[in-house]
Amino acid sequence: MNSRVxxxxxxxxxxxxxxxxxxxADGLAVAVFDLNGATAEETAASIAAGGDKSLGLAVxxxxxxxxxxxxxxVRGRPVILVNNAGMxxxxxFLEITTDMWNRSLEINLTSAxxxxxxxxxxxxxxxxxxxxxxxxxxINTGPPQLASYVAAKSGVVGLTKVLAREFGxxxxxxxxxxxxxxxTPMLRQSEKGGLMRVEEQESVTPVGRIGRxxxxxxxxxxxxxxxxxxxxxxxxxxxxGRNT
Length: 244
Ligand SMILES: NC(=O)c1ccc[n+]([C@@H]2O[C@H](COP(=O)([O-])OP(=O)(O)OC[C@H]3O[C@@H](n4cnc5c(N)ncnc54)[C@H](O)[C@@H]3O)[C@@H](O)[C@H]2O)c1
Known about the structure:
This protein has eight helices and six strands. By secondary structure, the chain is of the alpha/beta class. The structure holds nicotinamide-adenine-dinucleotide. Nicotinamide-adenine-dinucleotide (NAD) binds near residues 16, 134, 182 and 187.
């Protein structure tokens, strides 16, 4: 895997940071894109401190031109893309404005469209590529107050399936991991917003603990390997058995 280059979006925090660190540990050069350039650089610096190759960049994944500019800064051709950046706007359905709805779709769905368009031509030229889209287990249950988020993350699953079929003949696999209850700043933010209490969820999780960012990173690390080449268009749930 040594010469391969990966891009991880939203890699400045939580799940994305764990994915970036794990892919680097597995021998990939990793470009970390995040809206927050300082945290992207922190993740990259922690990887570089361990002797692996990494670059952190401030990239807003809702901005197609910024993504293209980011891809051009990356040394080598990115053949692995993890679309992980996201946010969870929550609130009563009847209070969602058109602007709020559109912004949520831009961040949680259209961002993956832009990033895939930016890297797919290079993957096609290489005749090899791996895309992992991070969706959400909330698409199975549709929790109240999360309409725009659940709609967007459901769209990520559809996008994954279409791209898998369209680019499978080019040696490119596309899968989605819907995380379920992973302890990250995003989850703690939802707790602060009164949506649930994190520790209370342990008892309703079959494996008896809350997920860790490294749980998602492990699944992602497998999906980007050569040996996962027969897995594409799939939804690989990582949720401690909360959704079966
Ligand atoms: N934590 C969970 O339990 C959980 C469950 C289901 C799905 N997810 C999904 O996993 C992904 C990662 O979530 P997390 O829990 O690590 O959250 P997090 O808030 O810790 O990290 C999200 C990162 O995305 C970045 N980001 C947000 N908007 C961006 C933009 N426009 N451009 C570039 N970067 C942007 C943020 O700056 C942040 O660093 C998200 O897509 C989220 O929807 C998380």
